[in-house]
């Protein structure tokens, strides 16, 4: 430790001693010369060190099947999607392919949609954009804004339902890769509370409300409402789509053509009525409870039911670990006890920005993200919220209990259907606000259904569909 | 004579150019685009459909009603409260200067910051207001979640923030009243309240008019406070014209949101111009 100090002191001595012998200018010159020599040496040293590391890195790809080339891509996503899964894949991606992903968070819900659309319109979008698949993709004008990956050979690994969800109505184009596994529109229920009050998983809506009555009389919160994040209040209505299709199998096609309406279709009206039915069972502060608050409540037994997408299981797993297995999953029940099904959401997709200058890196990244290696890394860090969208990849054995329950009860028996927004391109933009109104008791189910029809008509007109 | 006039008119050209480019042209183009279905790249003409949608769709017509309630309430409350605070601050108290700066401070804070803080304070179970009320034994209402109360809660916060500027204007008005009026009044044996009613109020009328006009127009246009506190929720209970226009823009319905903007302009013009005329006609000159 002493040597460097003595060395420095000696340099200073030499530099300053020369000052005495020569003129002041000359002395300064000597100091300057020493400094510049030292700096040159330092510069060369660090450059060599950097060069050797790069060279060393380049040598790495000799035995890996991935092309290694350093690059940085930016990625925009909302905070309500649990990040440990995709972050694990990003880390592995950087190791294997040299692509470093910088994640940027935006708002969720309607506000987040604004941000994405504004950035696309002003040309300030990141290289990769995380956004819903299905009808909402149409709002972003994908033909102009996103890269069409249908020509890539690895794109054939995407399962057909997902591929059609990211094609924005086109027969051939495919714009995105799945960020996570599928999401289930379900009711999360706290198994401890069910045991405590000796309740059974209901197979009809009537039975569900009876369970809620039992809980309410015992002083428990029957249903957790999270209107603080208003997008969540759409789930009871949208998750009921399985029951709508069970009653009217071709509802979606008729709706897109402008022939069927929610206000005049009994099954459709029932979906809104379910929101109205929930009003007396919500927790007292439901209008201010956020998504994160509700995650805490359902795990800690402060509420028995929560209508939400199963991605909440991952959010809960991030905070509470294995306590997540205290939570069960059930589809929103309809009127037929034998046909209790589940509405499935195709996952958020990663879209590549067509105006980015790093298209090759984006495609390399997407190829990596859909590989089995990446899915293994994902599953290790964050268990799936539903089955995957990559052909041939199965659910792991240690998936969340709730997801395994869903797999057994609904997927294996064929009682699933995709949500409405994946069957038609029309989804009213005021859906979450209209649902809030019903849930808070401001409007009746009939009024809400009529309002939503008007809202969809407005969107259909703007999309160029001819509705009456 | 003519040469002089034309010569001096040339000095107006730069200002007129800027005014035309940044105000007149956008106004004309927005009037045009409000009659179309527009997605920023192409448009199809659709006549007055956007306006019809605006008035027939419930979510949109609610906003017109809310905007009027909001503007009238904030304006009225600001005038009344600011007047009495200004009276207090112009009377003989020692800490006048300190109190004046204290009263003015809410105006210096950004509206979004005020909105976020009050939203946290008004949280139904964890917020400060309700925990204090609970300590006294009253169960506080759901300030921002109760659909009947939400708009009035936001009005209260807006008044809290905006009363400061109104107070300052009133202080200026009151201090400019000639003391000879007060002397005459005290000689005639007027009580304090009579002095206020018959001398101070008429003579600050120009300040009152300014405040009414400014706060009414500000209230009609208000967006940032409402967005920060409730985003127009719950449901549509606190939606005003500005937030609805923003939501339509965010949904990508650019023609519809432009139509909303034109309606907002029309509403403000219809209210502000006659109001100005009426108020000015009643002004008393010193």
Describe the structure.
The complex is a heterodimer of chains A (468) and B (286). With 468 residues, chain A is an alpha/beta fold. Chain A folds into two domains: 150 residues, D-Maltodextrin-Binding Protein, domain 2, CATH 3.40.190; 227 residues, D-Maltodextrin-Binding Protein, domain 2 (3-Layer(aba) Sandwich). In chain A, the strands form two sheets. In chain A, strands 5, 6, 7, 8, 9 and 11 form a six-stranded mixed beta sheet that branches. In chain A, helix 3 links the parallel strand 1 and strand 2. In chain A, helix 13 packs across helix 20. Chain A starts with a helix and ends in a 5-residue tail after the last helix. The N terminus of chain A is likely disordered. Chain B has one domain: MetI-like (MetI-like fold). Chain B is built from 14 helices and two strands; from the N terminus they run ααββαααααααααααα. Chain B has a two-stranded antiparallel ribbon with strand order 1-2. The model of chain B has no long low-confidence stretch (mean pLDDT 87). Classes of the chains: A alpha/beta (468), B mainly alpha (286).
């Amino acid at each position: 430790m002493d040597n460097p100090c003595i060395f420095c002191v000696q340099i200073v001595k030499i530099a300053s001693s020369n000052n005495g012998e020569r003129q002041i200018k000359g002395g300064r010159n000597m100091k300057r010369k020493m400094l510049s020599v030292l700096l040159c040496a330092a510069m060369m040293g660090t450059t060599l060190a950097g060069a050797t590391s790069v060279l060393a890195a380049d040598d790495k790809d000799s035995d890996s099947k991935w092309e290694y080339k350093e690059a940085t891509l930016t990625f925009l996503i909302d905070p309500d999607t649990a990040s440990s899964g995709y972050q694990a894949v990003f880390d592995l991606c950087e190791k294997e392919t040299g692509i470093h992903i910088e994640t940027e968070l935006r708002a969720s819900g309607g506000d987040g949609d604004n941000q994405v659309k504004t950035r696309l319109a002003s040309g300030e979008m990141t290289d990769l954009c995380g956004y819903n698949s299905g009808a909402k993709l149409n709002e972003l004008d994908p033909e102009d804004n996103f890269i069409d990956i249908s020509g890539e050979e690895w794109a054939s690994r995407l399962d057909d339902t997902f591929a059609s969800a990211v094609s924005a109505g086109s027969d051939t184009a495919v714009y995105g890769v799945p960020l996570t596994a599928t999401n289930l529109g379900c009711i999360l229920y706290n198994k401890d509370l069910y045991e405590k009050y000796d309740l059974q998983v209901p197979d009809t809506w009537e039975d569900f409300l009876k369970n809620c009555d039992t809980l309410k009389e015992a002083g428990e919160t029957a249903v957790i409402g999270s209107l603080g994040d208003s997008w969540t209040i759409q789930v009871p209505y949208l998750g009921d789509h399985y029951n709508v299709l069970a009653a009217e199998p071709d509802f979606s096609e008729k709706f897109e053509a402008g022939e069927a309406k929610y206000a005049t279709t009994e099954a459709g009206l029932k979906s809104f009525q379910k929101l109205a039915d929930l009003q007396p069972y919500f927790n007292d502060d439901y209008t201010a409870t956020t998504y994160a608050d509700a995650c805490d409540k359902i795990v800690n037994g402060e509420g028995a039911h929560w209508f939400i997408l199963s991605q909440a299981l991952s959010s809960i797993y991030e905070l509470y670990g294995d306590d997540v297995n205290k939570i069960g999953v059930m589809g929103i029940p309809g009127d037929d006890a034998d046909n209790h099904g589940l509405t499935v959401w195709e996952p958020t997709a990663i879209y590549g920005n067509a105006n980015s200058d790093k298209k090759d890196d984006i495609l390399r990244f997407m190829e990596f993200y859909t590989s089995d290696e990446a899915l293994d890394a994902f599953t290790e860090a964050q268990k799936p919220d539903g089955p995957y969208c990559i052909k041939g990849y199965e659910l792991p054995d240690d998936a969340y209990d709730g997801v395994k329950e869903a797999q057994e009860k609904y997927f294996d028996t064929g009682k699933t259907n995709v949500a409405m927004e994946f069957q038609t391109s029309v989804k009213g933009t005021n859906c979450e606000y209209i649902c809030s109104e019903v849930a808070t008791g401001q409007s009746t189910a009939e009024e809400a259904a009529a309002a939503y029809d008007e809202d969809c008509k407005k969107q259909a007109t703007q999309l160029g569909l001819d509705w009456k | 004579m003519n040469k002089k006039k034309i010569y001096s008119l040339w000095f107006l050209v730069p200002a007129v150019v800027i005014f035309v480019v940044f105000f007149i042209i956008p106004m004309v183009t927005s009037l045009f685009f409000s009659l179309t279905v527009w997605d920023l790249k192409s448009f199809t003409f659709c006549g007055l459909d956007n306006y019809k949608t605006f008035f027939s769709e419930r979510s949109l017509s609610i906003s017109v009603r809310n905007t009027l309630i909001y503007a009238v309430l904030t304006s009225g409350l600001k005038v009344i409260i600011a007047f009495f605070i200004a009276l207090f601050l112009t009377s003989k108290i020692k800490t006048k200067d300190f109190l004046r700066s204290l009263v003015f401070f809410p105006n210096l804070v950004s509206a979004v910051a005020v909105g976020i803080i009050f939203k946290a304070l008004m949280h139904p179970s964890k917020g400060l207001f309700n925990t204090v009320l609970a300590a006294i034994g009253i169960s506080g209402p759901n300030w921002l979640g109760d659909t009947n109360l939400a708009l009035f809660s936001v009005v209260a916060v807006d008044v809290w923030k905006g009363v400061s500027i109104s107070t300052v204007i009133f202080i200026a008005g009151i201090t400019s009243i000639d003391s000879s009026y007060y002397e005459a009044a005290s000689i005639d044996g007027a009580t304090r309240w009579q002095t206020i009613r018959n001398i101070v109020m008429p003579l600050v009328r120009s300040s009152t008019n300014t405040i009414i006009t400014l706060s009414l127009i500000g209230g009609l246009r208000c967006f940032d406070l409402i967005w920060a506190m409730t985003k127009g929720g719950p449901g549509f209970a606190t939606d005003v014209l500005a937030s609805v226009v923003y939501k339509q823009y965010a949904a990508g319905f650019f023609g519809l949101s432009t139509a909303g903007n034109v309606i907002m302009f029309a509403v403000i013009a219809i209210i502000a111009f006659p109001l100005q005329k009426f108020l000015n006609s009643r002004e008393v000159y010193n």
